[in-house]
Design a protein that fits this description.
1 helix; alpha+beta
Length: 70
């Protein structure tokens, strides 16, 4: 499971790297976690160039309809 979590974090950072390249964000941080054997959750924290931080959580992303919290 640790490998799956690491890969989810790596893939999400890679998918959002354009934000850093284009100057839309000064930092992107991702954290993946699980509460059991059948879920995968992802938190994305984006730091805007102004320093403001915006966070998103994608809960149980393996399900058909994921919950998104700001």
């Amino acid at each position: 499971q640790p490998e799956v979590l690491r890969r989810a974090e790596d893939y999400s950072r890679e998918a959002l790297s354009w934000m850093l390249d284009d100057g839309a964000a000064s930092a992107v941080q991702t954290t993946a976690w699980t509460t059991g054997r059948s879920d995968l959750n992802l938190r994305v924290q984006i730091t805007r160039p102004s320093g403001e931080q915006v966070s998103f959580e994608f809960l149980d992303i393996w399900q058909k309809e994921s919950q998104h919290a700001l």
